[in-house]
Amino acid sequence: MSGMLTRTLSQLHGRCGAYLTTNFGGTGGVCVVTLHPLPNGSIATDVVSGIERAMSMDRISRRVGAIAPSATLAVTTKAKAMKAAGENVIGFGAGEPDFATPDYVVEAAVEACRDPRNHKYSAVGGLPELKNAIVAKSMRDSGLEVDPANLIVTNGGKHAVYNCLQALLNPGDEVLLPSPYWTTYPEPVALAGATSVVLPTDAASGFRVTVDQLEAARTPHTKALIFVSPSNPTGAVYPRDEIEAIGRWAVEHGVWVVTDEIYEHLVYGDSVHHSMPVLVPELADRCVVLNGVAKTYAMTGWRVGWMIGPNDVVKAASNLQSHSTSNVNNIAQVAAAAALDGPLDAVAQMRSAFDRRRRIMHRMLNEISGVVCPETQGAFYAFPSFEAVVGREIAGRSVSSTVELATVILDEAKVAIVPGEAFGAPGYARLSFALGDDDLVDGVGRMADLLGRS
Ligand code: PMP
Question: What ligand 1 atom has the least distance to the C-alpha of 305?
Fold first, then answer.
């Protein structure tokens, strides 16, 4: 094997600068790598990791070996490592509120720790008090009537995405995925053997997919649409009539809708969140609603989410969960129930801070030469275009993609942003404004110093 590796590396040296698709040593692993010649003659690390990835194919299953690491977490990790090494890094990567979980939620958890009932296994699908709280919250916040039998509690919203797609998809199914998309969606689609059919949207269309686009992409294999409003990464919020139109189109063609409502309370200005199955009740039999406490109650680390859907899908997901994670941590479930049963004051405070920051961000980003940033309508992300910046030379380094731009900005300005490639949107970048106002101003100011002001 090592002889083969040496041979392969020398072949790669001769092909530097090209894209290569190859099959390494009969492992059956096909690897697509970008080759970068380095001034010292060595091979760029992404080539080596490409080879390592292909060679590990007989050790790691192809299914899991094909999963890309989360790009958003990668940026955050790199920024944290630089901070730990003493560098003054400002991170716009994090997808989590910079606020503490409300006290009354923490107190409920402390009490729950002392209750021996919570020291034991509990029902796979969730504690009855949390399920009841989700039922009440769904009616209060979006007018959605839910039977507790039609929901399960999961280990965060991410786990709800995974469970739901595993329960719904067969190999060969196609899933309509508007881009820019949250970086996590395509991976569980692929793990289920299904294919993501990416439907590009852009700033001109408000980053919202249209029924015409959906219809043009529909085939006999189309099983589902993944819909998210407010959106990560663009912050787009769909207006009522567009949600209705998409819901009715889905009903007409028997397409499932997986609707992710995790940012429902983070909308600004005139934007209003609407739940698709409330606007289009006929969709209920082919609709799964995903949600969680992470963003609304600043509870990212507690890991509580849920999925609401038709009974057969929820049962299937529960069976899957019974063999993977079993019940979600009881303490976290009690805390989540306290959060949902409590007031929405904490999220109102966060919303007003985010609202202030999104305006600052919008103004300051648009002042940077070559950057165009629409005003965020929801969630806590700015999603500016850097298309006019790509192609320039910055700090003596040529920048040919937003991945390279993000690296240059991190190295030179010590500012971490997530390149649009992570969301299927090269040319853009995501900047979370879930950080303090001073850091935000400092960070965008450093980018302006590096890239120039318009
Ligand atoms: N959906 C979207 C659109 C998200 O952005 C996130 C978090 N980044 C989640 C779901 C999952 O959140 P969690 O797993 O922390 O509950």
Answer: 16
